[in-house]
């Protein structure tokens, strides 16, 4: 199939080639300011060819601004954008080999399903037999091959989303941008369409760049994730890397639930702020300030590292969530699938107020080195 978005650009007007061929997208020194407010701070990012990449973060972190700069809908204040090795920084959206699926889908209510999918080709003067053939192939890809003649006003939310994806993929763009396309759907339908999107992406091999604030959605879809915070990339990695080895307290707390123990390292012992001490991996940095332990890594056992009091216990079906309090006010959370966390206790025997012992694999305690905030004494001097 011919990529109409590229076909529109005469060879003589193509920008110079730059970057690495294996990267579908390269952002270099991207900065975006709105007056005195900085939305993105000198952002550098490589997205691989054929990758399902997620931009993840809370509202206002810069993820949608990044997506819009890639698509050409927003101009960067500084920096360069390359797609498939071609500098597209100064090209408008319709001259970039990119298509976008927005949360609203933006389908034309007066056109049928297949006419919506074929609309871009119609504007590009593709002969009717060819555009209908390609539109039908795109509908078959998203599982709506029998919906060709249906009015889009008769579609469910999930069906409309798939029509929008078919329309975006029909010209085989180098990159497909998806701006929270599942946000308006109910939870059950979102989970089903997440699976379908993942399958479609593998079938077509197009690079997908997916924006979401939903960490579970990103973890379930992405080959790699970039977590943004305040207009900066906090960490890039696979879902497992980000979950198991967060680079900062922000990532550890944003992705899933974390137990974070503050203290200091001395040799192979980590001294907690409450006076207790626990083992730490020998290769942890000497200036380690925190240990991150995921709830499912904690075990209730007879002889553990820490004693704790049971504060609450909630049966959640597949898991049981138990909140523990250490000496002082610090709390830890244990999450167990079946009985795996309870080595020496019957789950039904755990009572509120009971003292238990906690243990974990030393490798499961991920060390963090954090920049400690300076405290000021009453005389105004920093400590």
From TrEMBL:
Alphabetically ordered keywords of this record: ATP-binding, Nucleotide-binding, Transport
SUPFAM superfamilies registered for this protein in UniProt: MOP-like, P-loop containing nucleoside triphosphate hydrolases
Domain ABC transporter: 25-255
InterPro entries noted in UniProt: AAA+_ATPase, ABC_SmlMolc_Importer, ABC_transporter-like_ATP-bd, ABC_transporter-like_CS, Mo/tungstate-bd_C_term_dom, P-loop_NTPase, Transp-assoc_OB_typ2
Gene Ontology terms, MF aspect: ATP binding; ATP hydrolysis activity; transmembrane transporter activity
The protein, known as: Spermidine/putrescine ABC transporter ATP-binding subunit
Keyword Ribonucleoprotein listed: no
Entry's Gene Ontology cellular component terms: ATP-binding cassette (ABC) transporter complex
The species this protein was found in: Arthrobacter oryzae
């Amino acid at each position: 199939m011919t990529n109409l978005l590229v076909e529109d650009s005469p060879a003589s007007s193509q920008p110079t080639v730059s970057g690495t061929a294996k990267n579908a997208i390269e952002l270099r020194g991207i900065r975006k300011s709105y007056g005195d407010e900085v939305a993105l701070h000198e952002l550098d990012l490589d997205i691989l060819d054929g990758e399902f990449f997620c931009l993840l973060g809370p509202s206002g972190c810069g993820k949608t601004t990044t997506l819009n700069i890639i698509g050409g809908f927003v101009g960067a204040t500084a920096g360069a954008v390359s797609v498939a090795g071609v500098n597209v920084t100064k090209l408008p959206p319709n001259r970039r080999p990119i298509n976008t699926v927005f949360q609203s889908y933006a389908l034309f209510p007066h056109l049928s399903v297949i006419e919506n999918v074929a609309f871009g080709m119609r504007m590009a003067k593709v002969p009717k037999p060819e555009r209908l053939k390609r539109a039908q192939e795109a509908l078959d890809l998203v599982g709506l091959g029998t919906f060709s003649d249906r009015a889009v006003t008769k579609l469910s939310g999930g069906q409309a989303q798939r029509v929008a994806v078919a329309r975006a993929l029909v010209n085989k763009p180098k990159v497909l941008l998806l701006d929270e396309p599942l946000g308006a759907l109910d939870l059950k339908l979102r989970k089903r369409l997440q699976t379908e999107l993942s399958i479609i992406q593998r079938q077509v091999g197009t690079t997908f760049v997916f924006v979401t604030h939903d960490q579970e959605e990103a973890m379930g879809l992405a080959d790699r994730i970039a977590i943004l915070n305040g207009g900066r990339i906090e960490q890039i990695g696979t879902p497992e890397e980000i979950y198991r080895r967060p680079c900062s307290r922000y990532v550890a707390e944003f992705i899933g639930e974390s137990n974070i123990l503050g203290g200091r390292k001395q040799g192979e012992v980590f001294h907690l702020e409450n006076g207790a001490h626990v083992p730490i991996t020998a290769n942890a940095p000497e200036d380690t300030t925190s240990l991150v332990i995921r709830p499912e890594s904690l075990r209730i056992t007879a002889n553990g590292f820490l004693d704790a009091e049971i504060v609450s216990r909630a049966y959640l079906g597949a898991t049981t969530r138990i909140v523990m309090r250490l000496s002082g006010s610090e709390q830890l959370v244990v999450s167990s699938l079946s009985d795996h966390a309870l080595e020496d206790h019957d789950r039904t025997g755990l009572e509120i107020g009971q003292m238990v012992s906690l243990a974990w694999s030393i490798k499961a305690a991920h060390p963090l080195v954090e920049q400690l905030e300076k405290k000021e004494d009453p005389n105004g001097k920093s400590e």
